[in-house]
Amino acid sequence: MASFRTVKKFLNGRIGRIVLIAIAILITAAALLVGGVLFGIVAGILFGLGIPIWVGASRPRYLAIVGIAILLAAPPVWAAIEVPYYFAAPSPVNSTDNFLQNATVSPYSAPAGSVFSWEVEVVPGALRNTTLVNLTLYVSTCPGATGTSDPNCGAGYAFNAYPSPKNVSSFTSETTVWFNETISSANIWYWQMGLYYRNSTHGLAYDSLVGDSSFYNGLIGPIAGDWTTVFAALIGTFYIAVGLYVGIPFYIALLVYVIYRMRREKRQLAAARARASSAAPEAGTGTRSRPVRRPPSGGAAPLPSTPTPAPAAPPASEQACPNCGAVVYPQETFCWKCGAALGAKDGSSSAPNG
Question: Is 123 helix (H, G, I), strand (E, B) or coil?
Fold first, then answer.
């Protein structure tokens, strides 16, 4: 338990906060690589907000800096980890209706300006009552694109149909077809093949290769360039993905936390003021207020009142009449009120005759 507190204390220090930022960047990038944007959102909020708040590094300004660090550093880390996967050649693929089988491109990666060869086996009769028409190869920097305006990519991406469609209507048995083309631009390229055929109702149908669903049914390749080429092709897309899918949820969560923090501090301040007010001395006095006595059982509670000073004693030159108690002076011989002789010891003396 002591070591646990030591770790929290370290992470809340200056070096520890830098370590927290590095951890948030690396884990967010790894989560994006393994599980996509959903994992990236969870990792960014958990390790960019949750862990720092838990260890005590909870100042909103610091948490905002953590978010900026993730947005700036996670995309290049993600891209650097992703690049080697792009150089792993995929297995041969078939089309949906199996008219096209064992489609590949070779070499899978080579410098820009190299000649690349696409190979596919065309199988007539894969479906009954069909007639093959033509076969087209599509190569583009937009994954899965079969035209110049694909909704999954912005306008202006590189696209080529190599070459003019090959006429395969005369094929009566399985035949291998090649496309040999030179790609001079260094980039990550994607490809797809389309075979048109007529069905039993003489309608025109389309059979394409089963590509990668994450590439909009496109097939990756060829890679025309080196590691730097692939990294440069990925980094822009990764910055957009992290900014939209990780950055926006992160700062929404941070805003919610800041609002919660402000309300909590406001409640704590109000409670502190209430405690200070209840402990303060009464106005105009330097002493604590007297406790209110509770009434006997069945009686009404008395109203709180301030203590009244005791009546002042009469001056020493004054005395009381022994008969009626009126205040008289020593030089007087008879009471001004009842007429009793002040020298008498009781009240039986009669008042003097007028």
Answer: coil
Fill in the DSSP letter of residue 46.
I
Output the DSSP codes for 239-304. HHHHIIIIIHHHHHHHHHHHHHHHHHHHHHHHHHHHHHHHHSPPTT-SSPPPPPPPPPTTSPPPPP
**Cα dihedral across residues 13, 18, 23, 24: positive or negative:** positive
pTM higher than 0.90: no
The tens digit of pLDDT for each residue in 279-332 reads: 765 544 555 555 555 555 555 555 555 555 555 544 545 678 888 877 777 777
Q: Are 352 and 334 in contact (CB under 8 A)?
A: yes
Tokens of 50: 């949750």
Q: Is the dihedral of CA 177, 182, 185, 187 positive or negative?
A: positive
Residues 6+ apart with CB under 8 A from 41: 245, 246, 249, 250
Indicate the domain borders of the chain.
2-88+233-263, 100-211
CATH of domain 100-211: 2.60.40
Residue 203: phi, psi to the nearest 5? -80, 155
- Under a CB-based contact definition with an 8 Å cutoff, are residues 134 and 196 in contact? yes
Task: Convert the pLDDT of each residue in 28-83 to its tens digit.
Answer: 999 999 999 999 999 999 999 999 999 999 999 999 999 999 999 999 999 999 99
Phi and psi at 60, nearest 5°, equal -55, -35
Q: Determine phi and psi for 155, rounding to 5 degrees.
A: -65, 150
| Integer-rounded Cα radius of gyration of the chain | 48
Largest CA distance in the chain: 166
**Residue 50 contacts residue 96 (beta carbons within 8 Å):** no
Could you tell me if 73 and 66 are in contact, meaning their C-beta atoms sit under 8 angstroms apart? no
**Non-local CB neighbours of 67 within 8 Å, separated by 6+ positions:** 44, 48, 247, 250, 251, 254
Q: Which helix (H) or strand (E) holds 327?
A: strand 327-328
**Phi, psi for residue 348 in degrees, rounded to 5:** -85, -15
In the structure encoding, which two tokens stand for residue 143, read together?
């994954």
User: Which stretch of DSSP H or E encloses residue 164?
Assistant: strand 159-167
